[in-house]
């Protein structure tokens, strides 16, 4: 059982793209040799921004809903597991359906595998491997009080809208509060004598930027 | 005879670099480790705490060590995969001798026979050409015990002045600047002091890739309101979200510091009382800076005036601040001046020696700090003592129980050592923990010099690129096969613990060194039975020196999660024994007592005052010209480490960034007709390289970047210039003029060499 008061927070703004999470995920006892994390540059030609993607552990997981073999289970404490081996028929429905692009089909093993929030570690009182090693703490595992104290410039959200679908997740995404600074992407902007505006505003649903649990339109 | 014995491809085939992956017990989900060993990463100067899982004398994995306060379990990808260097197919498990008829050009031989042959060769060269015809190269990835032993071995056993170390390519500019300004050479504050500071200025440091854990400190400070200023020709990951980016032209850092200081003085944003009470030399510096008007500074440095003014205002008006720098400003023929320029900004602000305010260089290697303290530098004796100082010589002679007159004088820096090999003055070389064929600039010259050696013995765990020239190779130890201390980036002395035994005939490096001493029939001072015994002598040798370790014990380190030096065994003021001395986490605190100033002030000079030094801007050597119109700068990527001897053998790390690429801004790429992924040739006065282009907006359009971890035709250091700082002798890796064009054809190694080779 994962301790109730501990939560997973993803803060892409803190990601340095080092892949410590990817490398460490493959070292986890239950998925030795295979990493369940995707870490990509958004567009390397114009920025060093990278995004780590772990499973968001939806309250109503689309992957499980579309699974024709009922192979994907959500534990009582809200962790969506990898496909169960005897049931998974490797059809790839979940891969196509997940709005976050998380599940991956392993053709050689004929199974879908994905992040299980290091279920074995979490139940043994440890943090997930990726959030433990992440050197910039873009992946953070802890209490809501800790994240609020540590990240006053951003707020956690766990509701996401994809078209008409609204998804609530166990994992939280940190979003910049209003007035956040646009990141630097082109050196020439910094070389010019006239500065470019660097303020960015995100359309946060529900209005109040002060509300840490506001929805965000993606 | 140090030419490579057979075709390099054949050596690579036999000795690698090959790749290691998780396999066997390391891949099993059911195998439980026999023990978890608390130790530290073998790579960079952050020295993250880590627990190694050990079973059957093999490191089978890792577990984060969340109690260690510096990194609290955090690791970079190198730390995560570091354990794959053990049980590696390329691991040297026996001594080797050069043998062109053997597969790969080297034949295994008995260890004792190899030691006898090495001693005989040293004896032959020294009796024919004199003691100074033998030189030693050492390294800053070694434990402090080994660095101490190597310094002693060169002076006492080999009786040669010629020892130097690879920190010459790393820490010496910062070290020389710290010595001139503070009289002590260490980062001033623990990193935890950054949290809550007003401004952090990062000058020439790709923090996120070269010292990833420091990112969390800087960004945590930023979350709590700190402004982050980054000075770099590239938008590295730490620069992406910075509050002010100073896109400096390579080699123009001293101009930026002088220009900003001038603005601070003009606006009265300096701490006059601090300057008057605690420093000397400000007026000369202020006078020098007058010429650096904002307009002139902007023109020279490429940083717009608005940004210089903003930097001056933020830095000048802050109540607390941190200034961090690294190789980006230090790897210059003006490296010491650059570092002094940052120190001038710190001293003028008066913000040093207190919580939330500090200054430091970010060390590169595991023991980048400790490796520069205890006598493996060409001009140094243990305890950060000076080999030319009669008092210092006398004290160390008494510890070593030798006649002071028998200790040689200062030697020369590592690059000059190769010039002496080239000139025929040095005939024999012993190397440990140094791969100059990859890591030194203009490395085609290094190859030519190596070929002139009469005799070369390499002590290493893999046959690195330089060791391919060796007559004999002695199988040394991996970090996890031995114990000892290192000093990490904050100046915290920590303990490396042994996890496994050396395989086969491999030995801990200190055993090999002592075996050579014994075979030379010069065993005096080389009869230690353990690293602990070496450390106990080092404590005495460092006592009373600035880098005073006399109060540090292995037990104290374990109990306190490391001890910040200086940590004396006796109270400096009273002379009373101080067995519980806690060490010195923060330097220069008001009212602090040190053995140099003796209460006169917090800094390590007789008057207790810090020194301003005029930090002169000089145009780089081999700067851009009509013929070579673009800047070439070099550096690291997060998944590789230094010359790649270890990391180019670890599969998952090689996968992450397999081969070097040339970073080019789209504006330049368009001008040259180069597209992302095109084979591209860069050329300097010394060499040519052809690599794939990586077209990115995150670099200045007048600059290209190549990471330096690879060997042979993929080595960036074929191109770099061997110009050195006149004081520190650090090479100017970070700038030289180059030409760039679309390649006529792919390089001829394509299809023959794997990515890492």
Residue share in helices of chain B? 25-40%
- Specify Rg of chain B, calculated over alpha carbons: 25 Å
- How much of the sequence of chain A is in beta strands? 15-25%
N-end to C-end Cα span of chain A: 31 Å
Word description of this protein:
The complex is a heterodimer of chains A (218) and B (757). Chain A has 218 residues and is an alpha+beta fold. Chain A has a domain at 58-114: Alpha-Beta Plaits (2-Layer Sandwich). Chain A is 17% helix and 22% strand. Chain A is built from 7 helices and 11 strands. Chain A has helices at 20-25, 62-66, 93-97, 119-123, 129-133, 144-150, 187-191; strands at residues 7-10, 38-41, 50-53, 104-106, 111-113, 139-142, 154-162, 165-176, 180-181, 199-200, 216-217. In chain A, strands 6-1-8-7-11 form a 5-stranded mixed sheet. In chain A, strands 2-3 form a two-stranded antiparallel ribbon. Chain A is globular and about 65 Å long. Residues 205-218 of chain A have low confidence and may be disordered. Chain B is α/β, with parallel strands linked by helices. Chain B has 4 domains: 21-85, Phosphorylase Kinase, domain 1 (2-Layer Sandwich); 95-170 and 368-542, Rossmann fold (3-Layer(aba) Sandwich); 172-361, Dimethylsulfoxide Reductase, domain 2 (3-Layer(aba) Sandwich), CATH 3.40.228; 630-742, Barwin-like endoglucanases, CATH 2.40.40.20. Helices cover 29% and strands 17% of the residues of chain B. Chain B contains 24 helices and 28 strands. Chain B has a 7-stranded mixed sheet with strand order 5-4-18-17-16-6-7, sandwiched between helices. A 6-stranded mixed sheet of chain B has the order 24-26-25-28-23-27. In chain B, strand 9, helix 8 (237-240) and strand 10 (244-246) form a beta-alpha-beta unit. In chain B, helix 3 (111-129) packs across helix 20 (509-519) and helix 4 packs across helix 21 (531-542). Chain B is globular and about 70 Å long. Chain B starts with 7 loop residues before the first helix and ends in a 15-residue tail after the last strand. Chains A and B meet through helix 1, helix 5 and helix 7 of A and strand 3, helix 2, helix 7, helix 8 and helix 13 of B.
């Amino acid at each position: 059982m994962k301790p109730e008061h501990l939560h997973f927070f993803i803060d892409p703004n803190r990601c340095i793209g080092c892949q410590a999470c990817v490398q460490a995920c493959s070292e986890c006892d239950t998925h030795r040799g295979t990493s369940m994390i995707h870490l990509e540059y958004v567009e390397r030609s114009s920025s060093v921004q990278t995004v780590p993607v772990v499973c968001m552990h939806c309250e109503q997981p689309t992957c499980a809903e579309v699974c024709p073999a009922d192979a994907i289970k959500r534990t009582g404490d809200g962790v969506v597991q990898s496909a169960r081996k005897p049931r998974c028929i490797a059809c790839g429905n979940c891969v196509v359906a997940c709005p976050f692009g998380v599940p991956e089909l392993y053709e050689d093993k004929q199974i879908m595998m994905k992040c299980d929030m290091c279920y074995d570690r979490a139940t043994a009182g440890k943090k997930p491997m990726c959030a433990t090693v992440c050197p910039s703490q873009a992946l953070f595992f802890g209490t809501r009080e800790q994240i609020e104290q540590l990240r006053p410039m951003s707020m956690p959200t766990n509701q996401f809208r994809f078209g008409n679908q609204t998804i609530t997740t166990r994992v939280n995404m940190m979003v910049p509060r209003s007035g956040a600074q646009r990141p630097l992407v082109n050196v020439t902007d910094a070389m010019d004598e006239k500065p470019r505006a660097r303020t960015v505003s995100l359309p946060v649903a529900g209005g109040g930027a002060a509300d840490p649990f506001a929805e965000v339109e993606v | 005879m140090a030419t490579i014995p057979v075709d390099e491809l054949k050596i690579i085939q036999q000795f690698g670099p090959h790749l290691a992956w998780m396999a066997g017990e390391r891949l099993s989900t059911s195998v439980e480790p026999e023990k978890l060993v608390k130790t530290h990463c073998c790579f960079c100067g952050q020295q993250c705490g880590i627990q190694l899982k050990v079973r059957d004398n093999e490191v089978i994995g890792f577990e984060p060590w969340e109690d260690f306060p510096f990194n609290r379990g955090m690791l970079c990808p190198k730390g995560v995969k570091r354990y794959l260097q053990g049980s590696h197919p390329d691991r040297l498990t026996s001594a080797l001798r050069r043998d062109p008829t053997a597969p790969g050009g080297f034949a295994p031989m008995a260890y004792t026979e190899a030691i006898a042959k090495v001693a005989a060769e040293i004896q032959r060269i020294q009796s024919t050409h004199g003691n100074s015809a033998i030189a030693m190269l050492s390294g800053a990835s070694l434990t402090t015990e080994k660095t101490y032993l190597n310094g002693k071995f060169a002076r006492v056993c080999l009786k040669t002045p010629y020892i130097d170390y690879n920190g010459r390519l790393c820490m010496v500019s910062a070290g020389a600047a710290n010595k001139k300004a503070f009289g002590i050479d260490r980062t001033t504050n623990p990193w935890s002091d950054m949290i809550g500071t007003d401004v952090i200025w990062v000058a020439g440091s790709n923090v996120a890739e070269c010292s990833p854990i420091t990112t969390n400190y800087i960004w945590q400070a930023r979350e709590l309101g700190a402004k982050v200023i980054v000075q770099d020709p590239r938008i590295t990951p730490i620069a992406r979200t910075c509050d002010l980016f100073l896109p400096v032209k390579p080699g123009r850092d001293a101009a930026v510091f002088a220009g900003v200081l001038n603005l601070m003085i003009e606006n009265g944003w300096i701490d006059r009382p601090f300057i008057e009470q605690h420093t000397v030399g400000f007026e000369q510096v202020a006078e020098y800076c007058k010429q650096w008007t904002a307009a002139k500074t902007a023109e020279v440095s490429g940083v717009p005036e608005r940004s210089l003014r903003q930097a001056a205002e933020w830095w000048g008006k802050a109540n607390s601040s941190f200034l961090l720098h690294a190789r980006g400003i230090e790897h210059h023929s003006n490296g010491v001046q650059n570092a002094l320029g940052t120190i001038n900004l710190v001293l003028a602000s008066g913000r040093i020696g207190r919580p939330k305010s500090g200054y430091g260089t970010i060390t590169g290697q595991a023991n980048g700090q400790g490796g520069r303290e205890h006598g493996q530098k060409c001009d140094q004796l243990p305890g950060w003592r000076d080999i030319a100082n009669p008092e210092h010589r006398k004290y160390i002679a008494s510890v070593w129980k030798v006649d002071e007159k028998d200790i040689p004088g200062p030697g020369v820096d590592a690059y000059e050592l190769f010039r002496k090999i080239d000139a025929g003055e040095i005939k024999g070389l012993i190397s440990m923990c140094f791969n100059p064929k990859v890591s030194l600039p203009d490395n085609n010259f290094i190859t030519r010099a190596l070929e002139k050696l009469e005799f070369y013995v390499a002590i290493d765990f893999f046959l690195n690129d330089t060791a391919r020239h060796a007559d004999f190779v002695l199988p040394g130890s991996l970090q996890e096969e031995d114990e000892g201390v290192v000093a990490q980036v904050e100046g915290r002395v920590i303990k490396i613990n042994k996890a496994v035994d050396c395989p086969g005939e491999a030995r801990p490096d200190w055993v090999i060194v002592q075996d050579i001493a014994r075979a030379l029939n010069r065993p005096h001072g080389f009869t230690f039975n353990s690293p602990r015994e070496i450390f106990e002598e080092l404590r005495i040798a460092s006592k009373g020196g600035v880098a005073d370790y006399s109060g540090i014990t292995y037990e104290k380190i374990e109990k306190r999660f490391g001890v910040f030096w200086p940590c004396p065994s006796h109270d400096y003021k009273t002379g009373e024994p101080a067995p519980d001395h806690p060490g010195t986490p923060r330097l220069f605190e008001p009212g602090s007592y040190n053995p140099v100033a003796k209460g006169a002030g917090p800094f390590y000079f007789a008057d207790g005052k810090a020194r301003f030094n005029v930090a002169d801007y000089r145009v780089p050597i081999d700067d851009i010209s009509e013929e070579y119109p673009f800047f070439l700068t070099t550096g690291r990527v997060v998944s590789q480490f230094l010359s790649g001897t270890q990391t180019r053998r670890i599969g998952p790390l090689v996968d992450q960034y397999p081969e070097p690429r040339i970073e080019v801004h789209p504006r330049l790429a368009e001008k040259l007709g180069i597209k992302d992924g095109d084979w591209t040739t860069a050329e300097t006065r010394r060499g040519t390289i052809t690599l794939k282009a990586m077209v990115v907006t995150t670099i200045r359009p007048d600059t290209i970047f190549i990471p330096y971890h690879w060997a042979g035709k993929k080595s960036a250091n074929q191109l770099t210039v061997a110009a050195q700082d006149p004081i520190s002798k650090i090479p100017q890796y970070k700038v030289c003029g180059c030409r760039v064009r679309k390649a006529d054809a792919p390089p001829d190694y394509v299809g023959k060499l794997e990515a890492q080779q």
